[in-house]
Amino acid sequence: MKAIGIVTILFIIIISGSVYLISREKTSDSEAGIVKEEKKSCCSSDMGSDAVSDNSIYLLESEWKNEDGTALNIKSLKNSNVVLGLIFANCSYACPIIVNDMKRIESSLSKNELKETRFVLVSIDHERDTPEKLKEFGSRMGLDLKRWDLLAGSESDIRELAALLGFKYKKDDTGNYSHSNMITLLDKNGEIMYQHEGLNEDIAEVTDQIKHLN
Amino acid sequence: MRKAVIIFLVLFPIYLMPQVSADNIPSQMVKIDSGEYTPFFRDENVKKVKVSSFLIDKYPVSNREYFEFVKANPEWRKTKVKKIFADQYYLREWKGDLDFGNLSADAPVTYVSWFAARAYSEWKGKRLPSEAEWEYTGKAGIKTADGTNEKEYTKKILDWYSAPSGKLADKGKGTPNYFGLYDMHGLIWEWVDDFNTTIVTGESRGNTGLERNLFCGSGSLRSIDPQNYAAFLRYAFRSSLKANYTVGNLGFRCAKDIKINIAGRN
């Protein structure tokens, strides 16, 4: 008799549990919509230094990891001029040249300009480029990691950022990528000021633009 | 009596349990088994592209469905959308934020950007199909998985590509293809998630682009049969797009990964 009582209670718990789970599933669609609305109103009502313009790439708000494995929201680059390149660490030809072009930009800037500027390399290889691997790539390329960020992100966030910048890439059968060769300059608000295409070309235009931003 | 109650208590939760099954396909989607296909171009080394099994919508997303999305997500309404995510033609034929005007509710939604199509898919718990997934299913004829040999079918696609587009018809009016998908051709063009993979020659200075074959030389010359020519047009069209572009005959449908789906109900 006692056993039956316990069994009954047990089943009541199971029933309420499953009813709860199912009702949660059913509303998940509409909840998703509501959550998005709330998220939006939270941010657009916040007119402080967090506000971004309609043309800012910081509308993305995606989360990345830097070369130390520390989480970094792309928005945290706001308030610096950003020189940004997309690369992958296993790249043997074009990417080292892109990084080198960015280093040439770095060395052409004055101390004050450098203070206002960050250099960001975003990996397009979400499978192989861990923060450790990017750190190793950074030191191999002789980068001053106080001034450079090497970012690893999800496949989807990489695709989104690339789409926004007009950067094209495709993985081939060997796991390497063919890709655009492009350096993007963002102002402190995250708006695209200039895009430099090609490899090992004159970087004077980028440097000039940065000087105008300061 | 007590026995009956216990039996009820034992069975009822089982009835409520969502089904755990990989084959539990949402009603408006079709399961596509894994396979491989030969893209019409690519360099010599790449013969086949593998596609894992996935789910894909039977129909393109309609105005009515998109209306529900903008109702729930004000930031995607016509007057609210950020320009960086959708250009000035976004939902051009809609009369207002929550009014699709004279458009048919069941016609595919167009003038939507890649960002918008992606946001809609995410809201639905889905995603956009990849280019490989789209081409794999879009290559099908009416009777066969590879429509290359269905001359009539291919001709229809090409006729459509060259015909001026008028007011869009409702989705699902034509004949489904081999996989049971409607309107893969003949009504609209569709966004794919990785539309930004095709590098045109002019951009790939520095020898990093493999896609030079697409526009100059061997690639396009090799693709002389009409089915390939149709695919060529799609690649060329995609390569001309930017993620915030909105175009009058460009819409989308969603896809989804196949997982053991504990949610089970859609």
Question: Can you describe this structure?
Answer:
- The complex is a heterodimer of chains A (214) and B (266).
- With 214 residues, chain A is an alpha/beta fold.
- Chain A folds into 2 domains: 45 residues; 157 residues, Glutaredoxin, CATH 3.40.30.10.
- In chain A, the strands form 3 sheets. Chain A has a 5-stranded mixed beta sheet with strand order 5-4-3-8-9, with helices on both faces. In chain A, strands 1-2 form a two-stranded antiparallel sheet.
- The radius of gyration of chain A is 23 Å and the shape is globular.
- Chain A starts with a helix and ends with a helix.
- About 13% of the residues of chain A have low confidence.
- Chain B has a single domain, classed as paralog of FGE (formylglycine-generating enzyme) (Alpha-Beta Complex), CATH 3.90.1580.
- Chain B contains 8 helices and 7 strands; from the N terminus they run H-E-E-E-E-H-H-H-H-E-H-H-H-E-E.
- Chain B has a 3-stranded antiparallel beta sheet, with no helix packed on it. A two-stranded antiparallel ribbon of chain B has the order 2-3.
- In chain B, helix 5 packs parallel to helix 8.
- The interface between A and B is large, with 50 and 48 residues.
